[in-house]
Amino acid sequence: MKRNTSITCLFVFILLFLPVLNTWADGDSATAPQNPTNEVALQQVRDELQDVERRWYVLTRVRWGYPLRFSAGIGAMLVTQPRAAECASACLLRGWHFEVEPGQYGIQGSVGWGRVTGATGRTQRWLHTANWGWAVRGAALRTWRWGPLGPTPQTLVGVEGNLSIVRLNFSAGVMHSLSSQTDDGWVITGALGWGF
Fold this sequence. Notes:
- The chain is of the alpha+beta class and about 200 residues long.
- The chain folds into 2 domains: about 1-50; about 50-195, Porin, CATH 2.40.160.
- It has 2 helices and 8 strands.
- An 8-stranded antiparallel barrel has the order 1-2-3-4-5-6-7-8.
């Protein structure tokens, strides 16, 4: 009799909890397809990050400042990007760059590292829109015979910082003259312009 009662209790227990077991099984089966989907998405991201290439983007700017007065610069930025990335509307670039900038009272060359969020539009490689960006550059400046630094040409070297906000570019730097005739050969530079 005890054995029949035990079997009956076990049978009732199974019947009562069978819907609960089915719910758990359905829940597991509902989440099971999401795991492969997430794994596929993660694998696509991994593939994109591995499929990268080095690219050059052209940089330009015009500005008014001290000591060059009016100047126009052209340079390039080397970045590593996913091969499928396009910067027609907007993209974030970071990397090493250089720029040559002839001006009214001299010429400046600079090399540095920076980050910029910008767009190339239809040009593909000319970053003509710098929405936001910053850069730190080592710079060398050669002045002409005339200008604000005196009647003799000078060569200056130093550091320059740049900040671009919605295409407007602010720059400031400190340079030391290698050919100054005076003891105090330090020059503070600054400019306001358009570009990066």
